[in-house]
Amino acid sequence: MIGSKRIERARTISIDQRGRIAPGELDGILGPRAKPAQGTMPIGRWRGEPVMVRMFDEERPEWPGGREWLGQLPEFIYPLLSTALQVATWRRDHRFCGRCGTATRPHGHEFAMVCPRCGFRGYPRISPCIITLVTFGRELLLARSPRFAPGRFSTLAGFIEAGESAEEALRREVMEEVGVEVGRISYFKSQSWPFPHSFMLGYYAEAASREIHIDGIEIEAADWFMPEMLPALPPSGSISRALIDHFVNGVAARD
Ligand SMILES: [Zn+2]
Fold this sequence. Notes:
Low-confidence stretches: none
CATH architecture of the largest domain: Alpha-Beta Complex
Protein name: NAD(+) diphosphatase
Mean pLDDT: 92
Bound molecules: zinc ion
Cofactor: Zn(2+); Mg(2+)
GO biological process, one term: NAD+ catabolic process
Order of helices and strands: EEEHHEEEEEEHEEEH
Keywords: Hydrolase, Magnesium, Metal-binding, NAD
Structural class: alpha+beta
Pfam families: NUDIX, Zn_ribbon_NUD
């Protein structure tokens, strides 16, 4: 799955401790074809060539961050960028066995760090989240977190907690964040979001109640918007924007 044990020549994506990525010579982030350096990890193939990730222990503030690359690179490279960032984060954060504290080693041909003492295997962590556009007829419920750029509103999102289904998490998050009850839910699509390891499951949710009560902490403002009068939205390429655009286009097609 992630390549043979002995890779003679590969292209390398170089990532620092903070997820900054070195500019490369191919598709923005891929380094020249070369013999892999010590400590690099294979993550797959790209344009027929093996690709490795190399973690740098020091910080390289001159390299652009992952989100900056995301805004610059074409969408087809997104899965590779996402894999590289998540594997790098996982290698940084799983150097020791979580069960017995011994230093771990990479598994030969799986995405796994193995403990040589107790045999425990650590895999890249993926954190599932729901992301949902709540609608009422033609209207969209959009909200803003204090972390957003000024004026920007987006869909609602939250982590799925241990023991919950995606549907349960969706109803709970919407109730907690905006106090709205949700009726019918329909699945849209998913997207890996490597900041640092989220996996977004996108849904539409029809509101069963209309009155909004925000929590004032995670959400500082929320409102119903008509498709013709939308506020500043998340950038294209994000699943939140795709949820909004797809709904608005559907409304326009029905009108
Ligand atoms: Zn162990």
